[in-house]
Design brief:
This protein is mainly beta. 10% of the residues lie in helices and 44% in strands. The protein has one helix spanning 9-18; strands spanning 22-29, 40-43, 46-57, 62-70, 79-83, 89-95.
Amino acid sequence: ERTGKFIGQDALRAIKAAGPKLRRVGLFVEGRRSPRQGMPVLSGGQVVGELTSGCISPSLDRGIAMAYVPAAMAAIGTAFEVDLAGKGMAAAVVTKLPFLSNT
């Protein structure tokens, strides 16, 4: 570890110690409507995150998306709902990334 001092060093150490507030997660999204960037992610009826990207995967035959959610809710298997731009709600579950593996 470097011993030099610089402005903001204490603030950066505090941020690092606290850990990230949000985590990027992969989601499997139920239904045939395509999840899209900007759609809200809900838990218990409250907006907790937002999709950063999404589509229907021909290889997986289901909707997939990535979203930022609170770090405490980012565990694989966590259930959410996605608001499909006024066209209903879709169940979503956190899954591992990448969605597909070459192995």
